[in-house]
Design goal:
Layout lengths: L9 H56 L11 H11 L8 E6 L4 E4 L15 H9 L3 E7 L4 E11 L5 E10 L1 H51 L14 H36 L3 E6 L4 E4 L1 H7 L11 H4 L9 H7 L1 E5 L8 E10 L5 E10 L1 H36 L8 H30 L8 E4 H15 L5 E5 L6 E4 L1 H17 L6 E8 L3 E7 L22 H6 L6 H11 L4 E6 L3 E9 L3 H6 L1
Parallel strand pairs: 12-14
Antiparallel strand pairs: 1-2, 1-5, 3-4, 4-5, 6-7, 6-10, 8-9, 9-10, 11-13, 14-15, 15-17, 16-17
The structure holds adenosine-5'-diphosphate (ADP).
The site of adenosine-5'-diphosphate (ADP) has 21 residues, from helix 12 and helix 14.
C-alpha cells in the first residue's frame, strides 16, 4: 500500500479545519468588534460635535439677542458672529462652520479663504430643512469633492423671542474616525494572521499526536499482513487512540496465537500427508485439484505440483465413467483399474465431501491406495474356497452315487459290490490325502510346520529314495540315475525332502508313457546342488509351466483326477523347497517330456567344519 500523500492526509485536514474554525471565530469576533467600535467612535464623535454645536449656538444666540442701536460703536452682529465662529478651535482643518441667517445667507464662516462667500445665499437642502422644521438636522455622506466621508450637523438658532434667526452649519470630516477604525482593523488583521499561523503550527502538532499512532498502527498492520507478529505499537495515552492501540496490540497477540496454531496444524497436516502411504487428493467444489500428496503422485504417476488445477476425473481416468463428482460421493469407494498390458495395478478410491457451516459443498477429498496385492490375495482366497469346495464335492458325489447303488441292491451282487466299495475307498483315500495336503499347506502358511534339519549327504540320500521307487515302479518305466560320486552335504529335513522327491518322481511316473524313461540327475555346483527329474510324458504347455506350482492347478483336469491327483502336490513341494532356501521350476516340451528342477544350498565350509 502506498504512503498517504500530505494533500490527502488527516494532518492537512486537521490543519484546514483548525484554520477554518479560527477564521470563522476571528471573522465573527472581528466583524462584531469593528462594527461596535465604529459605532462607538462615530457616536462619541457625533456627541462631541453636538456639544460644540450646543456651545456655539449658545454664544451665537447671545450675540443675536444683544440690543444694538444705530449709533452703537461696538462690533456689528456680523462681525461678532464672525468673531465667535473664528474663535472656534477647530483642530481639524476639514471642519467647516458656517452661520447662516434665516434668509439662508452665510453670515459667518471659520474658513478665512472663504470670506468672499459671506453674504451669499446657500441652497443646501439640509439648511432649508433645519430652517423649515426648526429642528437640528444631522447626516453623514460621501463628499466627492474632498473624497471623504463627512458629517454635517445643522442646528437652528432661536433667539429669546423664540424666532429662528438662523442655523449653524457644522461639517466635519469623518476621515479621522474611519482612519482609526482602519488602523484598528489592520492591527486586528495582523493579530488574526499571527493567530492563524500559530494555530496552523499548533494544528500540525496536535494532528501529529493523532496521526502518529495511526500511522504506526497502519505500518504494524502491514507487517502483520506479512505474517510477522513480533512487534507491537506504542500506546501514547489513555484516550480513544490509546485504547485503539491497546486493542490493536491485543488483536496482534490473538492473531499471533491463532497464526501459530494454524501454522502448527498445517505442519502436522503436511507431515501426516507426506508420510502417509495412502494418497490424498483435495479438490474444490468444481473438482479442480488443489492439493495432492507425494503418495498420490506416486500411485497415479503424476507430479503433485503439476496437477494443481487439473480435473480430478481426468487424473483418475474416470472421464466418461463418472459425469458428476457428487456421484462419487454416493458411491463411497470404488476400484479403478490402472493396469497396463504387463502389470496389473488396481487403486481403491474413497471419496468424501468437505462442507462449510451452511452445509454447502466446498470441495472433495479423495483417498487412494494400491489394492493390487490385496485384490489378488482376495481373488486367490475366493478361488481357493471354490476349488476346495469343488474338489471335495467331486469325490463325495461319486461316493454318494456308488453308496446309493449299493443301498439300492447292488450290495447283493458279489461282482459289483466289491468294485463299488473299492471306488468308494479310493475316493475316501483321495479326500483324506487332499485334506491332509490342505492341512499341511495351512500349517506351512502359518509357519506352524517345523523343519527338523540335519546334516545329510544328498548323494547317498538321493540313491536311497530312488532305490525305494525302483522297487515299486512298473517294469515298463526305466529310472536312470545321473548322480556323481562323492559326498555333498546339505542341511535339510529328510522327511520333508522325501516328500518333495516323492511328489516329483511320482508325478513323473504318473505322466510317463509306457516304456518311458525317467532321468534323475544331480549336479553339484559351487554353492548349491541342482536336482532334475526328467520324464518323457506328454509335457506341460509353456504358458502353464509356472502355474503347476499353484494350489489346485492341474494342466489336464480330467486326466489328473483320474490318476488320483489332488492338485496340491507341487504347491506343497514348492513351499518345502523354498523353506530349504532353494528354488524350483519346470521345463517342458509338449509331447516330449517334462523336467522339474530344484536347487538346494550346500552346507557352507564353516558349518561343515563345525560338525
Ligand atoms: P496332482 O496331484 O494333480 O499331480 P500336482 O501339484 O502334483 O498335482 O501337479 C499339478 C499339475 O501339474 C498336474 O495336474 C499335471 O497336470 C501337471 N504335472 C505335474 N507333473 C507333471 C509331469 N511330470 N508331466 C506332465 N504334467 C505334470
Amino acid at each position: 500500500m502506498n504512503k498517504v500523500g500530505f494533500f490527502r492526509s488527516i494532518q492537512l485536514k486537521f490543519i484546514i479545519i483548525y484554520i477554518l474554525l479560527l477564521l470563522l471565530a476571528v471573522q465573527v469576533i472581528g466583524s462584531f468588534f469593528t462594527q461596535r467600535l465604529e459605532e462607538d467612535l462615530l457616536d462619541s464623535f457625533k456627541s462631541s460635535i453636538s456639544e460644540r454645536v450646543e456651545l456655539l449656538s449658545y454664544n451665537l444666540e447671545q450675540a443675536f439677542d444683544r440690543e444694538r442701536s444705530e449709533e452703537d460703536e461696538g462690533p456689528t452682529l456680523q462681525d461678532e458672529i464672525q468673531q465667535i465662529v473664528q474663535d472656534i478651535n477647530t483642530d481639524n482643518i476639514a471642519t467647516t462652520v458656517n452661520v447662516i441667517d434665516n434668509q439662508r445667507r452665510i453670515i459667518g464662516t471659520n474658513k478665512l479663504n472663504q470670506e468672499e462667500e459671506l453674504g451669499k445665499r446657500t441652497s443646501m437642502p439640509i439648511v432649508q430643512q433645519a430652517l423649515f422644521f426648526e429642528t437640528s438636522q444631522k447626516e453623514d455622506f460621501w463628499e466627492a469633492e474632498s473624497e471623504s466621508r463627512v458629517y454635517v450637523h445643522v442646528e437652528p438658532l432661536i433667539d429669546s423671542d423664540g424666532i429662528t434667526v438662523g442655523v449653524i452649519y457644522f461639517q466635519s470630516s469623518l476621515d479621522e474616525v474611519y482612519g482609526q477604525v482602519e488602523d484598528i482593523n489592520s492591527i486586528f488583521l495582523q493579530g488574526s494572521l499571527l493567530a492563524i499561523s500559530i494555530s496552523a503550527i499548533v494544528g500540525i502538532l496536535v494532528a501529529r499526536t493523532i496521526t502518529k499512532p495511526i500511522m504506526e498502527m497502519r505500518e504494524q498492520a502491514l507487517i502483520m499482513a506479512n505474517g510477522d507478529f513480533t512487534q507491537k505499537v506504542n500506546v501514547y495515552g489513555k484516550d480513544e487512540i490509546g485504547q485503539l492501540a491497546e486493542t490493536f496490540n491485543d488483536l496482534n497477540s490473538r492473531l499471533k496465537h491463532s497464526y501459530a496454531t494454524i501454522e502448527e496444524e498445517r505442519r502436522k497436516l503436511s507431515s501426516v500427508l507426506s508420510n502417509m502411504s495412502d494418497g490424498v487428493i483435495a479438490t474444490d467444489n468444481n473438482g479442480s485439484i488443489t492439493l495432492m500428496n507425494e503418495a498420490a503422485g506416486r500411485l497415479i504417476g503424476e507430479n503433485p505440483e503439476e496437477v494443481i488445477g487439473d480435473y480430478l476425473l481426468d487424473i483418475l481416468q474416470l472421464e466418461g465413467k463418472v459425469i458428476d463428482l457428487t456421484e462419487l460421493q454416493d458411491s463411497g469407494s470404488m476400484i479403478i483399474d490402472f493396469s497396463d498390458d504387463d502389470t496389473p495395478f488396481l487403486i481403491r478410491s474413497n471419496f468424501s465431501t468437505v462442507s462449510d457451516d451452511e452445509d454447502e459443498i466446498t470441495g472433495f477429498i479423495t483417498v487412494i491406495s494400491d489394492v493390487t496385492e490385496q485384490e489378488k490375495v482376495e481373488q486367490e482366497r475366493r478361488d481357493f474356497v471354490s476349488n476346495v469346495s469343488h474338489e471335495l464335492r467331486t469325490p463325495l458325489t461319486t461316493m454318494k452315487s456308488y453308496i446309493e447303488a449299493l443301498t439300492d441292491g447292488a450290495w447283493e451282487d458279489k461282482e459289483i459290490a466289491p468294485k463299488f466299495l473299492h471306488v468308494a475307498q479310493n475316493e475316501t483315500d483321495r479326500m483324506i490325502r487332499m485334506v491332509n495336503d490342505l492341512l499341511q499347506l495351512s500349517k506351512m502358511d502359518s509357519d506352524e510346520l517345523p523343519l527338523h534339519k540335519e546334516r545329510t549327504d544328498f548323494v547317498e540320500y538321493f540313491h536311497q529314495v530312488i532305490d525305494r521307487f525302483e522297487m515299486n515302479t512298473p517294469e515298463e518305466i526305466t529310472l536312470i540315475r545321473e548322480i556323481p560320486k562323492g559326498q555333498s552335504l546339505v542341511w535339510m529335513d529328510k522327511d520333508k525332502m522325501t516328500q518333495v522327491l516323492d511328489n516329483i518322481i511320482s508325478n513323473a511316473i504318473k505322466y510317463s508313457p509306457e516304456g518311458g524313461e525317467i532321468r534323475m540327475k544331480l549336479d553339484i555346483k559351487r554353492h548349491y546342488l541342482l536336482v532334475s527329474i526328467e520324464d518323457q510324458g506328454m509335457g506341460i504347455p509353456y504358458d502353464k509351466l509356472e502355474k503347476v506350482f499353484e494350489r489346485f492347478y492341474r494342466a489336464d483336469k480330467a486326466r489328473t483326477r483320474k490318476l488320483g491327483g489332488t492338485g496340491l502336490g507341487l504347491a506343497i513341494t514348492k513351499e518345502l523347497v523354498e523353506a530349504h532356501h532353494g528354488k524350483i521350476w519346470a521345463k517342458s516340451k509338449e509331447g516330449k517330456g517334462t523336467t522339474i528342477l530344484f536347487t538346494l544350498p550346500l552346507m557352507s565350509k564353516k558349518r561343515r567344519d563345525m560338525r
